[in-house]
UniProtKB/TrEMBL annotation:
This is CaiB/BaiF CoA transferase family protein. PANTHER family: BLL6097 PROTEIN, SUCCINATE--HYDROXYMETHYLGLUTARATE COA-TRANSFERASE. The keyword ATP-binding does not apply. Keywords: Transferase. It holds the Pfam family CoA_transf_3. One of its GO terms (molecular function) is transferase activity. It comes from Nonomuraea purpurea.
Length: 396
């Protein structure tokens, strides 16, 4: 039994952040109903990396397990009535529409909370629900750029580089997930529903609590040096370095220990906390010149012997084959009715009494439309009429 078993989530979100937040609720046992257009949600038609799949592409499949699909035209009165009846039975209602769209469709907080005062209504946006940036596109790369984080890494004069993951989408998703759980706990204690507002800009700022506090409280400027560096506010050496046959990641190892391990006695005379910042470029250059003399495996063994923080630089093929990843069960494998046996990332947490799990793979468009309308009390004849009118789409 999942910890959210018996709770219903209405998911009107698209792309990554909203669907990921809703999927995490589904992983914990909630009945998540994905409300999507009769032609299917946008992500079904925009496969990341070109991984199209058979009938469900990899990106949609990865973000929509443990959900049922209701394919409905919300621009029709009959379609809105169906979702309103669904919302009246729900515990969480989640949407990430562009500003003004929820109101036009009758899916805004005032409308939904009037139907269900106990609802936890999660509204997700790019920059907030008011203010000068209301109409700006809330896209991951654009928020990474605006967050300031890109200028915390790399070398002065080099172009800022984005993260190798959809970092702001993921951070926003977990913010929404956390907010929904907090609001549900509040409701358990008080019986009161509420609105949860999450935006990508605030999420990107909040996750940099250390870096931005160093800047705002410590008054330390954000400064990239002449040598590549992993983070402006972490002492050297910190980053990825070339070896004889690949790369090695070094995470601020002790300078006295590193001096012995790399046979660089000049490091032993330095103070890690002071010189690690003020002489950052010098230290980085010394280390960068030494590491190409040996292989990554050799350096990893040497660093382990001297208790220094070092690690390999993986590609995805290395990651999925790693023994610790296998031991942790970091990926889940299950059978999908159209995509066959699939393996995707699993769960970022464990619960001893009510663990998350995969109950179903990502649905086909409208796969559960008839089932859901039956639960809402619609006669089969009326459902068939709505399908014929284009209000609904059904699989099979």
């Amino acid at each position: 039994m999942g910890v959210l078993d018996g709770y219903r989530v209405v998911d009107l979100s698209i792309a990554m952040a909203g669907p990921l937040a809703a999927m995490r609720l589904g992983d914990l046992g909630a009945d998540v109903v994905k409300v999507e257009p009769v032609a299917g949600e946008w992500q079904r038609h925009a496969p990341a990396g070109g991984a199209t799949g058979n009938r469900v592409n990899a990106s949609f499949l990865s973000l929509n397990r443990n959900k049922r699909s209701l394919a409905v035209n919300l621009k029709s009165d009959a379609g809105r009535e169906i979702v309103h009846r669904l919302a009246a039975t729900a515990d969480v209602f989640l949407q990430n529409y562009r500003p003004g769209v929820a109101e036009r469709l009758g899916m805004d907080y005032d409308t939904i909370s009037a139907l269900n005062p106990a609802i936890v209504y999660v509204s997700m946006s790019g920059y907030g629900e008011s203010g000068p940036y209301l109409s700006r596109p809330g896209q991951d790369l654009l928020l990474q750029a605006m967050s300031g984080a890109m200028l915390s890494t790399g070398r002065d004069g080099d172009p800022p580089a984005p993260a190798g993951t959809y970092a702001i989408d993921a951070i926003t998703a977990y913010s929404a997930f956390e907010g929904a759980l907090a609001a549900l706990l509040h409701r358990e204690r008080t019986g009161e529903g509420q609105r949860v507002s999450v935006n990508m800009l605030d999420a990107a700022i909040a996750v940099q609590m250390q870096e931005l506090s160093v800047f705002t409280v410590g008054k330390v400027p954000q400064r990239r040096g002449t040598e590549p560096h992993g983070h402006t506010y972490i002492r050297a050496p910190y980053g990825v370095f070339a070896t004889k046959d690949g790369y090695l990641a070094l995470g601020m190892p002790r300078l006295d220990g590193l001096a012995v391990a790399l046979d660089l006695p000049e490091l032993a005379a330095m103070d890690g906390d002071a010189d690690g910042h003020t002489r950052r470029d010098e230290i980085t250059a010394l280390v960068a010149r030494r590491l190409p003399e040996r292989t990554t495996a050799e350096w990893l063994e040497i660093c382990a012997r001297h208790d220094l923080w070092a690690g390999p630089v993986y590609g995805y093929a290395d990651l999925v084959a790693d023994p610790q990843v296998k031991h942790n069960g970091s990926f889940v494998t299950y059978d999908h009715p159209t995509e066959g046996t699939v393996t995707t990332p699993g769960f970022p947490y464990g619960l001893s009494a009510s663990p998350p799990g995969v109950r179903m793979g990502a649905p086909l468009v409208g796969e559960h439309t008839r089932e859901l309308l039956d639960e809402l009390g619609y006669p089969a004849e009326r459902t068939a009429e709505l399908v014929a009118e284009g209000v609904l789409a059904c699989e099979g």
